[in-house]
Amino acid sequence: MRECRMIYECVINISEGKNQEVIDSISKAGGNPVLDIHSDFDHNRSVITIGSTELDEVIDSVKNIFQKGNELLDLADHIGVHPRLGAIDVVPFISYDDSIFEPNSQTIEAAHEFGAWVNNSFDLPVFFYDFASEQFLSLPEIRKNAFVKISPSFSSRDKKQNDAVCVGARKPLLAINVDLDCTDIKFAKDIAKTLRESSGGHKGVRAIGLELSSKDRVQVSMNIVDTIAVNAETICTEIKEIANERDISAKVELVGLVPEHQFKLWSDSFKTWANLDKT
Predict the structure, then answer these.
(1) Whole-number Å distance between alpha carbons of 214 and 211
(2) Residues annotated as part of the active site
(3) Are 86 and 142 in contact (CB under 8 A)?
(4) Tens of pLDDT along 34-56?
């Protein structure tokens, strides 16, 4: 019988996707636990995935990345289409095995301790979300209402509001985008509105429409937050069919790693469309 070991991850989102030297310096600070780096020029954002069977190893890696990022990143001149609150914007901690996908108590505690460390060390406001939040606040809720309707869990001693960190404990999710070969941003936003749960679409789907000026196209950018109930292939195929009605081609882009249980749901044709190795 195969032993099921707990996997610990942290998927750090930083507000830098253009300067490769800076991205490399920050990601290298995380050492061996860094599993994947995905950067986007138009988003001006990079997603750094850290993973290990040892929670302490993940925490040390995240702290090293945060320290380096705090040295090198500055939001003052930041331009990017992706929503953000901070330079080191989102730091979610995740734990799972073959049957349990909600973060365990150690993971939630690690998120709380990390948030306190960030606030004490760098005087940055910290917002907790998902399982790390007593109110189970979502990341979109915080982005929309931060400092107005929602106060940080840890406030800046200097009352900073121009840079903040969202620290979470959450289930595994899938970040996936569909690029549309057109420049009609309203079209992308309308599709996103049709799909996302908050607008009456698919449960477990978050979606926004973004303009990718460097590529002369638009994008439906998504988070599949319920990777058990939602098959990303179904959602992406729906986008493709809507685009095909206007003779617009669609291309899938994955951000970060794919949860194994989600990958097993996908057909070979979808894996080919997403440019994934079938193995």
Answers:
(1) 9
(2) 82
(3) no
(4) 999 999 999 999 999 999 999 99
